[in-house]
Amino acid sequence: MMLWSDSTHLANFGTAKLWPVYMALGNLSKYVRSLPNSGALHHVAYIPSLPDSFQDDLKTWHSQWNKASHRKDVTTHCRRELMHAVWRFLLDDDFVNAYKYGIVIRCLDGIERRVYPRIFTYSADYPEKVLLATIRDKGLCLCPRCLIPQSKLHLMGQALDLRRRATDVREFFWEKVRHAREWIYQFGKGIKSKYVEDHLKETSSVPTVNAFSERLGQSFNPPQVFPLSRMLVPDFMHEFELGVWKTLFTHIIRVLWAKTPDGSSVLKLNDWFRQVLPFGTDTIRRFTTDTSEMKKLAAHDFEDILQCSIPVFDGLLPDQGENWQLLRLLYRTAEFHAFAKLRCHTDDTIEHLMEVTTAFGKLVRQFKDNICAGCETVELPSEAARRVRRAHTQTAGVATSNQEIPATQGRRPKELNLSTYKFHSLGDYPAYIRMFGPSDGFSTQVGELAHRLVKRLYGLTNKRKVAMQIGKRVERLERKSTAAPANAESREGSTSTTTDTPDDRSFQFSMSESQNHPIDIFNLIKAQRGNPAYKNFLPKLQDHLLGRKLGRAFDGDNHNDFSDEDRNTLHIYGEKIYQVGTCTFYFTTYDNRRDFDVVNPTSRPDVMARSQEDNRREVPFWHARVIGIYHAKVSTTHSDVRPKDRGVERMSFLFVRWLGAEPGYRFGFDKARLPKVGFVPYTDNADNFAFGFLDPSQVLRGCHLIPDFQSERTSELLPYPCAVARQIDSNVNDDWETFYVNIFVDRDMVMRYYGGGIGHLNQGETQGGDEAGDEQAGPSEDEDEGDLEEEPMLSLPAPAVAPTPGSGDEDSDDESDDDPIMEGDDDDDGRYASD
Ligand SMILES: [Zn+2]
């Protein structure tokens, strides 16, 4: 059993709240569990809040009710008691009986099995974990999982710290709590009185009996220990994306302000963020507003910022050494983020995550000691404004509008605080992933996503006794879905279409067969005379198509051995090629799912292919900017082409502008540097390959290039005005000299560079040669590869194979990964993000 709980606002206005507890069965696939409409998430309870009459009741008999501190202590205590009373109610005798002796369940396949329910994980944000672990909010030991004191939290990742997590596991202190409760309930001492604190303060315990420890451990004969601390898994979204990374990003901007008080580097930062191209359907969205202000950002936005941060921050710190240190830190941060969020792990990736965690912890501490200590960091203007506004609201009792607030003078000093639970928590990921699987399985996002249903149902209620009404509707929905086998079948049917068949795997791309934009080749060449992009357009195209017809291995079309005679054997029907707007590339992800990238020359133009050069170990991929997507009907009479391949065939090809690896530049995980590429310089030679053609089946997937803003713009790479080569920004006549390849754009991309992704393992076969295959690749094998390349094209007109339903699902998968954060976040942001 995996549990989630999280209180949520039911409507954008008003105070209506619901605090649901959800449960899913860990035996189910996480891909089913995390789908909001799969019905895998059950509503176990709605935790009530203390009634309004509670305070009045207490006032009548509590002698010191007027003391604010007493009032607060008692209310907090009662809230805790309420939470555990609810859980005591849920873990009733029947449940405990099943827990001890098992329960016989008749499963769907008709077989009766004895099932022992076990509580696996409980995902909740920190305030809720505090309640569940029965610890105090701001105590000496902040962590619900271990007893490492607050003064040692910043040492996250050190060998000693990692060892202490295993030895100083938090347990429930039965004796201490029993004594404390005696003082309170028998001798009438205050909850925070010295008698009680003597027992509890040291371990940050509270005088509440933990329902889990009691019902599933202490009440047994003989008593057992319930693994309470293991159940409370870390929470990546709140702790890292909205926690540590948000804090770190904010502080880096504070450092920028401190280093350049005129704000010029912050302006540059915002400007550069705006120039980052979007990627995927919503993997990276366009950064529109001033990113440094962080207005209304959800976890997904912070993820985007992190993934694009390295090129944008490069060069903003004036000191070279500090700049390098910052880039290194950002690299490790993005690396930690990627590996902690992988949806499929191997021993190797977990091992790597551990190393990255240690390296990240060290770099953050160095950043604090070396860079932050050297400058006086103060609040951001927006932070100061928020603080002033809050103070106004509190004193005036009403919210004041922006205009009434004095200009933000007097920004207070702010330091980077690493002694937080969130920072400490990062050290727990490798161990928890080993125990419970990849972090998306127990992510709090699953719970946040489920809130959509209760919010929708809230709209159907009459707003009175809301929990009761919502609960009844949920029950009705669940009954409906189990009572209708037809429904279940159709659902099964739809999932079976998403499971991959071998056919799907070889399906690499699809593009429209539209002939709405025919281009006469000779007219094109005539019209574009003098345009460097179209120089030798026809011979290059002929070489490319003929090479494919001959089944040659793809080598970037560097074969200059075709004679004009050879070329003349190739016929392009009607001398026409047809332009289409987009091409969709399908690929198998590292976690063995299918996904796709849509490439569009005007908005998402960059693609990557496996490198065909010998230095594949250093530069594993080739990159190209697609500037045209075409198809044409082609046949050949060349004698070397096998007769069955000579007939008329629709061939698709991409017209690209090649990028080459930056010479002499080293990159990689060990160096903490992103790869750099730049456009191949154009020269007037016949064999210049700045522009060329690419077989779409060679494309692995789209890629995300971010300008290296430190490199200047230059017109030297292509010293002519050429709109077609610069479709992204057609007003300019120059290019960025180099680009960073964003390997952190998504987890699949990271794993392509890291290697060992399970879904990537057989990539070599379909793409024309992996390491081993290539070394032995003889001429006969080349022919086979040619076959494989051509095949998908023959099946081009098959929309049935085009995994539109499947791809839709992949998409929603991704969404369950990222999108749900948006909704739940409105409240989350406000509540916890500010520490
Ligand atoms: Zn801990």
UniProtKB/TrEMBL annotation:
<feature type="compositionally biased region" description="Polar residues">
    <location>
        <begin position="393"/>
        <end position="406"/>
    </location>
</feature>
<dbReference type="Pfam" id="PF18759">
    <property type="entry name" value="Plavaka"/>
</dbReference>
<feature type="region of interest" description="Disordered">
    <location>
        <begin position="762"/>
        <end position="835"/>
    </location>
</feature>
<protein>
    <submittedName>
        <fullName>Uncharacterized protein</fullName>
    </submittedName>
</protein>
<feature type="region of interest" description="Disordered">
    <location>
        <begin position="393"/>
        <end position="412"/>
    </location>
</feature>
<feature type="compositionally biased region" description="Acidic residues">
    <location>
        <begin position="808"/>
        <end position="829"/>
    </location>
</feature>
<feature type="region of interest" description="Disordered">
    <location>
        <begin position="477"/>
        <end position="510"/>
    </location>
</feature>
<dbReference type="InterPro" id="IPR041078">
    <property type="entry name" value="Plavaka"/>
</dbReference>
<feature type="compositionally biased region" description="Acidic residues">
    <location>
        <begin position="780"/>
        <end position="792"/>
    </location>
</feature>
